[in-house]
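Proteins fold reproducibly. Next comes a concrete instance:

***
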Amino acid sequence: MTAMRIPKPSASSRALYTPEERRRRDESVWTLVQGILAPFQFLVFLVSLGLILRFLATGEGLFAAQASIVAKTLTLYAIMVTGSIWEKKVFGRYLFAGPFFWEDVFSILVLVLHTAYLVALLTGTLTSGGLMALALAAYLTYVINAGQFLWKLRLARLDQAGRLEATVTLADRSSLSGSAS
């Protein structure tokens, strides 16, 4: 009987989570918090985007648009803080853990643009049109960053499905070789 060799994954094809990281992810309350905050933040984003576009199209609703951007920024801060705690619990570091390095780098840009909006709003350094343009730039980076995280979620699900399929395949092979003896 020949031993079955399982190829070692290359560094570029490393699974998103080690088994221990997956266990910590699944057991962490911060995973649930992220699962709630992410769609909530997206809803706030959609409402805010609508209010910004309404203001830009009609000139009406400046205060509502500005308040919605502040609300979007506060939800961003909440998800960033809790996401950093999640990353620490799962990977042992608050930011820039290997599997999420580039998402975290881009998240910093998202934070900088949203924070720049708050500073400009509070200091009056931009016109209302300038504020809306800055908010739209911040929102564009947010959409890109959200896409990065959705991609990682998909990769994690595919990795999990692949591991489950490999386990089932190995179990099937084991039972077949056991019944052949």
In short: The chain has five helices and no strands. Residues 89 and 139 are 28 Å apart (CA to CA). Residues 19-172 form one domain.
